[in-house]
Amino acid sequence: MQELDTSTLAATYVCTILALVLIFVRLGLRYHRREGIRVDDVWMGISLVPLIVRLGVVHVVLAYGTNNIDRKASPVEDMSEAEIRQRTTGSKMILAARIFYAGLWVFFTFSLFLST
User: Fold this and answer.
1) CA dihedral sign of residues 77, 83, 84, 88
2) Does residue 114 belong to any structural domain of this protein?
3) For the chain, what is the domain count?
4) CA distance 65 to 39
5) Distances (CA, A) of 78 to 1, 61, 67, 71, 81
6) 101 part of a folded domain
7) In a domain? residue 17
8) Residues 6+ positions from 69 with CB-CB distance below 8 Å
9) What span, in angstroms and rounded, lies between the C-alpha atoms of 114 and 43?
10) Is residue 116 part of a domain?
11) Model pTM above 0.85
12) Which of 8, 37, 51, 52 qualifies as a FRET site for 24, CA 20 to 30 Å off?
């Protein structure tokens, strides 16, 4: 079984939490200054969903690993069924993470174009 890459996991959590804080500060300041919620603020609020879901998916990928391994250092024959299943699940979750990442860029792009 592979070791959990804590430095990558910590960087992922820090960046995601920073993005969440920035979005909440933006929405909170709009509310505090009584400027009203605009369309781009709604898009930023909606983008919280794929941001949080992507964090969960990336955590699973980093915890389970992927099928991208060195077969000489870690032959498949030496892996247990559980490890093979986890690596397969991790590889499938990479596709979901990429979809949610693309979704984030779509929401941020809509927000950018709607704010101008």
Assistant:
1) negative
2) no
3) 1
4) 39
5) 10, 21, 14, 10, 10
6) yes
7) yes
8) 87
9) 9
10) no
11) no
12) 8
